[in-house]
């Protein structure tokens, strides 16, 4: 039985040896490379100019399984923006993001790998709501005085389901109108947050993945409202890779004064 | 309660020098004056009748302005303003804005002939109602006012600012819908432009006193008006802009804190602190109403129209109960009946065209394509008949009765049977292409999309097969799925007898959400404007936000709602076992009308050319105006 290391080696070797290059045999035709249409993600984070601590946290997980029993495209994207003195904010965002990730991977990703799917599983919206409520319990217990806003998006096949507490911002670009972006009546009011008491109001909804390509941007307050929407839109649409766009967004927020921690998760959906 | 007056301050008989039009006067040999509705300033409004419609009484409102100003330039300005109101109204088209019919002048009098609105203005409603006006009514009206303000503020080429929202300028018609009246001072908005102060003291925003008019000003006046309704404190009698000193809940504690928050934002002194647009204002109101449960409470408003107001176009008598659903195509209505016949009727007149007798009752909805009608019967057979004559083209035998309705796709008929099979049959010759087994009888109508077929069965199993008859996925509800699936934006929706409406992503059947109702459902959901509508055995028709899985409203019928809703131009049409066909506003859940038949309705209506077709177990097929 080969060790893991040597097995990996042999796999790699076989792959590289076995991979024919079209230039070597110009006359031959090969089967098409199956096009996998995977989402591409970029992230960026910065403490900003005016703050000394980073109280934000982000998490990105994506999964793909092809073959005779394929799985739907899977993704988990979370941004948390902590608050509270004596490091409570950074602990709160860390605790909540781990709780949400632990619950959602167990209940969705692992569940998907199960072969029998005929029983109706718990609805995804309920799982997301439970995960956010569990994160709230964890923060209330473990981080007194701390709180965090949190936005979690679960990509499952053609649908994206989003859970949202507090004012982490989420935008599906392309549908963004300047009006809704710049003048939300509660834009400066933090009205809900994880860790602020027993009754948590969670906003959960499901959105179809844009068929002709598009973006999902999840960001904290350090970007939102600091960089004008038109600029965000322009950066996102002109960058070749979402990673470049995410970094440029962070730079733009810092050059606009960097008043708060900046966290950006940018998901690019493939064109159908 | 129902008065048909528009009350302005009534100065009649006080001898103010204006020569009133007498009842019986005819203007332009066309408009017969019936009486005065009200007057104010230089204008009076009369109720009149349009004599160009001699056979019916077409009522109109006639606004008359008598110009007694001596100064020539002032005189011309007044005439110009009156003409501007006419031009402005003529360019507008919105359900909350009265339609203008005519415009003419005679000597020093100018006239505007408009739609006559049957209802009360808010001032009259305040006078009649002794208590605070309930929050739910205020919110419902305010949402509608936001809609019309949004229309005006987004008007092209220039936004229009109404500038004078106050109780006497807002009418509630007898369908409980808002109508804005008196566009006398509304005007095109030029950003930054200043003019003279016009409006009504108490209701108008502070900046309007400085001559500034803006969308935020209309929002202020809207809430000054609603504040008046909720508190019964007349702002004209209070210090100017003192709303913040009179918080709504201090005067009327029944108002929710959520609404109070909205009001204080809308009434902020600085326009920058208010809701910037009517659309955002409305959004805030709707989310408030959802939080306070207002929008989910059954029957927000009282019944407003009786069935005698619904116009019946025709009815057709069959020999037994009509449990099936009509299909309208090419001027024909096709409908199956328990007298074993499928009927073809003329859609316009209801005249009998042909019938074809099967050997069992028919409960499904026919399907038609390329001149051939397909229908299943309890005699185990699927029939293909010529659409124009009802001649038999072929029959296909299942091994059990067919209750499921046929679905046509890719040259095939897909239909379920009590023999626990889904049959796929060639449309051309009636030969079976393939079939798949289910765990129980299939009553649900199959849905075909993108080379996949989706259907439920009576054991609660729900299947997705591809065209190679390979199972893609299967899910099991706790009880039977008689409800047929609906596919919208890659999501499959269906109801079950286990009291649940399910939302599964179509690709793999993963459950995204479920919505629990108060009873079993066999109704098929309909989708419109981001909402799902479904009937239920708990007597309710539910409206559910499809993305948030939240109830937007529910409407309670007098008995079970087993039929499926159909949405047409903003109205939800659905039949109930109580015998009524309901027409409900899709946004608010308010009843628009109901139409009584003499037996339970179990089928689904069809709507074509503004006509609703429905069968009833009273043996009749009805066509009524939508």
Description of the molecule:
The complex is a heterodimer of chains A (272) and B (626). Helices cover 33% and strands 26% of the residues of chain A. Chain A contains 6 helices and 9 strands. Chain A has a 5-stranded antiparallel β-sheet with strand order 2-3-4-5-7, covered by helices on one side. In chain A, strands 1-9-8-6 form a 4-stranded antiparallel β-sheet, covered by helices on one side. In chain A, helix 5 packs antiparallel against helix 6. Chain A starts with a helix and ends with a strand. Chain B is α+β, with helices and mostly antiparallel strands and 626 residues long. Chain B contains 8 helices and 43 strands. In chain B, strands 1-2-3-4-6-5 form a 6-stranded antiparallel β-sheet, with helices on one face. Chain B has a 4-stranded antiparallel β-sheet with strand order 12-43-42-41, with no helix packed on it. The longest helix of chain B has 19 residues. Chain B starts with 25 loop residues before the first strand and ends with a strand. The interface between A and B is medium-sized, with 30 and 31 residues.
């Amino acid at each position: 039985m080969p060790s893991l290391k040597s097995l990996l080696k042999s796999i790699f070797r076989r792959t590289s040896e076995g991979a024919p290059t079209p230039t070597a045999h110009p006359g031959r035709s090969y089967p098409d490379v199956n096009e996998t249409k995977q989402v591409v993600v970029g992230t960026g984070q910065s403490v900003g100019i005016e703050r000394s601590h980073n109280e934000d946290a982000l998490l990105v997980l994506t999964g793909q399984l092809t073959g005779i029993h394929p799985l739907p495209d899977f993704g988990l994207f979370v941004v948390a923006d902590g608050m509270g003195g004596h490091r409570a904010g950074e602990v709160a965002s860390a605790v909540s993001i781990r709780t949400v990730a632990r619950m959602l991977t167990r209940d969705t990703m692992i569940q998907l790998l199960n072969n029998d799917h005929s029983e109706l599983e718990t609805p995804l919206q309920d799982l997301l709501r439970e995960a956010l409520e569990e994160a709230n319990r964890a923060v209330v217990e473990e981080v007194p005085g701390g709180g965090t806003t949190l936005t979690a998006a679960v990509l499952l096949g053609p649908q994206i389901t989003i859970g949202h507490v507090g004012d982490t911002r989420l935008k599906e670009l392309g549908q963004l109108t300047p009006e809704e972006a710049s003048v939300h009546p509660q834009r400066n009011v933090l009205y809900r947050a994880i860790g602020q008491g027993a009754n948590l109001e969670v906003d959960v909804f499901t959105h179809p993945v844009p068929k002709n390509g598009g973006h999902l941007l999840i960001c904290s307050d350090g970007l939102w409202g600091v960089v004008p929407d038109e600029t965000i839109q322009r950066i996102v649409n002109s960058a070749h890779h979402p990673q470049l766009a995410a970094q440029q967004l962070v730079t733009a927020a810092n050059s606009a004064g960097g008043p708060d921690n900046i966290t950006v998760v940018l998901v690019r959906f493939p064109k159908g | 309660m129902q008065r048909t007056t528009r009350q302005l301050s009534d100065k009649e008989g006080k001898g103010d020098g204006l020569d009133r039009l007498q009842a019986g006067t005819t203007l332009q040999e066309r408009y017969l004056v019936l009486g005065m509705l009200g007057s104010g300033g230089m204008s009076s409004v009369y109720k009149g009748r349009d004599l160009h419609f001699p056979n019916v009484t077409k009522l109109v409102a006639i606004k008359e302005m008598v110009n007694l100003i001596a100064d020539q330039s002032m005189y011309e300005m007044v005439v110009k303003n009156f003409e501007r109101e006419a031009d402005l109204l003529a360019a507008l088209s919105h359900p909350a804005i009265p339609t203008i019919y005519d415009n003419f002048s005679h000597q020093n009098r100018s006239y505007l002939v408009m739609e006559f609105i049957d209802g009360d203005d808010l001032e009259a409603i305040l006078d009649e109602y002794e208590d605070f006006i309930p929050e739910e009514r205020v919110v419902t009206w305010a949402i509608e006012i936001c809609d019309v303000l949004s229309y005006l503020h987004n008007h092209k080429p220039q936004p229009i600012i109404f500038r004078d929202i106050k109780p006497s300028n807002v009418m509630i018609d007898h369908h409980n819908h808002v109508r804005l009246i008196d566009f006398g001072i509304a005007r095109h908005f030029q950003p930054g432009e200043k003019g003279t102060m016009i409006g009504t003291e108490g209701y108008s925003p502070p900046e309007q006193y400085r001559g500034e008019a803006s969308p935020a000003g209309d929002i202020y006046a809207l809430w000054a008006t609603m504040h008046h309704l909720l508190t019964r404190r007349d702002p004209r009698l209070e210090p100017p802009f003192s709303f913040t000193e009179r918080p709504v809940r201090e005067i009327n504690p029944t108002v929710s804190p959520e609404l109070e928050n909205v009001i204080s934002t809308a009434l902020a002194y600085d326009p920058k602190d208010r809701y910037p647009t009517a659309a955002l204002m409305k959004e805030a109101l709707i989310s408030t109403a959802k939080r306070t449960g207002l929008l989910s409470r059954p029957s927000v408003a009282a019944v407003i129209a009786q069935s005698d107001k619904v116009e019946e176009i025709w009815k057709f008598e069959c020999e037994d109960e009509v449990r099936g659903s009509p299909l309208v195509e090419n001027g024909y209505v096709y409908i199956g009946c328990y007298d074993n016949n499928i009927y073809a009727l003329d859609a316009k007149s209801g005249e009998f065209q042909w019938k074809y007798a099967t050997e069992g009752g028919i409960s499904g909805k026919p399907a038609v394509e390329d001149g051939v009608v397909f229908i299943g019967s309890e005699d185990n057979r699927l029939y293909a008949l010529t659409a124009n004559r009802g001649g038999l083209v072929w029959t296909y035998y299942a091994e059990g009765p067919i209750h499921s309705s046929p679905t046509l796709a890719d040259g095939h008929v897909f239909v379920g049977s009590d023999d626990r099979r889904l049959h796929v049959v060639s449309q051309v010759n009636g030969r079976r292409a393939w079939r798949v087994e289910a765990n129980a009888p299939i009553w649900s109508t199959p849905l075909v999309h993108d080379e996949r077929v989706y259907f439920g069965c009576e054991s609660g199993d729900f299947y997705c097969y591809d065209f190679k008859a390979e199972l893609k996925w299967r899910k099991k509800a706790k009880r039977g799925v008689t409800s047929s699936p609906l596919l919208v934006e890659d999501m499959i929706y269906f109801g079950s007898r286990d009291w649940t409406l399910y939302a599964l992503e179509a690709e793999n059947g993963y459950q995204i959400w479920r919505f629990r109702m108060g009873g079993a459902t066999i109704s098929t959901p309909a989708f419109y404007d981001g909402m799902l509508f479904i009937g239920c055995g708990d007597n309710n028709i539910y409206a559910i936000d499809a993305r948030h899985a939240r109830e937007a409203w529910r409407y309670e019928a007098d008995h079970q709602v087993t039929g499926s809703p159909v949405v047409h131009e903003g109205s939800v049409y659905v039949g109930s076992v109580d015998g009524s066909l309901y027409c409900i506003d899709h946004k608010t859940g308010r009843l628009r009308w109901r139409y009584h038949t003499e037996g339970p309705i179990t089928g689904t209506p069809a709507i074509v050319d503004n006509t609703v077709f429905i069968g009833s177990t009273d043996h009749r097929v009805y066509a009524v105006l939508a």
